[in-house]
Amino acid sequence: MAATRNVMRAVRVFEFGGPEVLKLQSDVVIPDPKGNQVLIKVHACGVNPVETYIRSGSYARKPALPYTPGSDVAGVIEGVGEHVTAFKKGDRVFTTGTVSGGYAEYALAAADRVFPLSDKLDFKQGAAIGIPYWTAYRALFQKGRAKAGESVLVHGASGGVGIAACQIARACGLKVLGTAGTEEGMNMILRNGAHQAFNHREANYIDKIKECTGMKGVDIIIEMLSNVNLAADLQLLAHAGRVMVVGCRGPVEINPRDTMSKESSIIGVSLFLATEEERQECAAALLDGIAAGWLKPSVGSEYPLERVVKAHEDIINSSGARGKMVLLP
Question: Residue limits of the Enoyl reductase (ER) domain (predicted)?
Answer without folding.
Answer: 17-327
